[in-house]
Write a structure and sequence with these properties.
The protein is mainly α. The protein has 5 helices and 2 strands.
Length: 95
């Protein structure tokens, strides 16, 4: 279970199915916004906005800041802790 300061982050992720799905996918592999958009079946603009929000909370990391296209993201250790807590709260269900 998350520590005191992490409950806010868990709530932040739980409040958005899109953020939850993005973190769940990034648990297994790095990804670009376009790959995430295809996998989740959402517009790239929605994915990019969610990634920016997750990055601001230090849940994901942009690996290719010098690129303007095909940006690559990975989940942080904090992001892994948060998504595991989300999965536990949901009874291990995906998405």
């Amino acid at each position: 279970m998350p520590g005191e300061g992490q409950w806010e982050l868990v709530s932040f992720v739980l409040s958005s199915e899109l953020r939850t799905r993005i973190l769940d996918i990034l648990r297994n592999a790095e990804a670009t916004p376009s790959r995430l958009a295809k996998e989740i079946d959402r517009p790239v603009s929605h994915i990019s906005r969610a990634l920016k929000e997750l990055q601001q909370k230090n849940l994901v990391l942009l690996l290719t800041p010098h690129r303007t296209k095909a940006r690559l993201y990975e989940i942080t250790d904090l992001g892994k802790t948060v998504i595991e807590s989300v999965r536990t709260l949901r009874g291990g269900r995906r998405g």
